[in-house]
Amino acid sequence: MRNRFAPVRVAAAALAFVASGAAHAATPIPAGEASFTFVDARGQPDRPLTVYTYRPAACDAKCPLVIVMHGVSRDASNYRGFWEAAADRYRLVIAAPEFSKRYWPRAAAYNLGDVAAHPGDPAKWSYSAVEHLFDEIAGGRTGYVLFGHSAGGQFVHRMALFLPGSRATMMVAANPGWYTMPEWRAARAADPFPYSMAGAPVGAGALKQALARPFTLMQGTADVDPHDKDLVHNGAADREGANRYERGQAFFAAAQAAAKELDVPFAWKRVDVPGVAHSGSRMSRAAAETLFGKAG
After folding, report:
1. Full-model pTM
2. What digits encode the pLDDT tens for the residues 151-200?
3. What gap in Å lies between CA 160 and CA 180, rounded to an integer?
4. Where are the domains of the chain?
5. pLDDT digit string, tens, across residues 8-28
6. Which among 97, 94, 77 is positioned nearest to 86, based on CA atoms?
7. Tell me: the pLDDT tens digits for 216-261?
8. Would you identify the CATH topology of the domain 7-22+30-295?
């Protein structure tokens, strides 16, 4: 039976959409804290995003842009705050879009990218909204860094898999709760999409590209509570591991194995953050240090 999502055609469409870009008026990011409403005319215009920004007064368009994805609380302004000290220290511009529960309810719309609702139209995926937002705030930049913690980490690792042609120069997923495993074959996947790529609208071609692009999985070594109220438990998630730390190790090992089997260079890294549990602020600081510390 053919996959109803037609992964080859959808993957090609996703790459074409990323390459197409858009010509429209940009929204400049002012100095200090600010926010604006972004209406994604090329994606889902009926689902606006509030974007919280921060730019040090000394920063211009040469400063790196970091797009920060919030966790399950949908608290983008807090995540902007987690990055402000790093922005001052390392000369960064921060943009934190908020996928509100009003417009992006439940994990399917945010963590899982709204892929199941629009399998054949990648422009409407939540991941694509990040690319569209980048067009709005790029300010002449050709790429951006993408960071996400917890539910945001779920978002980031899936965007890496499902939108491998994005303009993110580095993606960092910190402490995701569970994963879409990098197995595209139904006969070998422990569970189907969204717990693996088996039955997803992208397949081996997208995975090959994703594995060869920079991606960092950051894990707090103390994020091991199996009873965390926000940790999903079901048969499929628990097959990945009993807690976030175990699940991340399983995901990364599976990605290494997939790269070897697909004969593609493996550009991913996994970074332990000693003694840190499920803390958005501490993982944000660790990510900033890991990514920009040598330049600070």
Report:
1. 0.92
2. 999 999 999 999 999 999 999 999 999 999 999 999 999 999 999 999 99
3. 11
4. 7-22+30-295
5. 445 444 544 444 444 444 899
6. 94
7. 999 999 999 999 999 999 999 999 999 999 999 999 999 999 999 9
8. Rossmann fold (3.40.50)
**CA-based diameter of the chain, in Å?**
58
Collapsing DSSP to helix, strand or coil, 192 comes out as coil
Q: Is the separation of the CB atoms in 159 and 166 below 8 Å?
A: yes
Block residue for tokens 């429209």: 24
φ/ψ of residue 96, rounded to 5: -120, 100
Q: b/e for 192-224, b at 16 or more Cβ within 10 A?
A: ebbbbbbbbbbbbbbbbbbbbbebbbbbbeebb
Half-sphere exposure of 48 (CA within 13 A, CB side): 8
Whether the CB-CB separation of 195 and 170 falls below 8 Å is answered with no
Residues 6+ apart with CB under 8 A from 32: 54, 55, 57
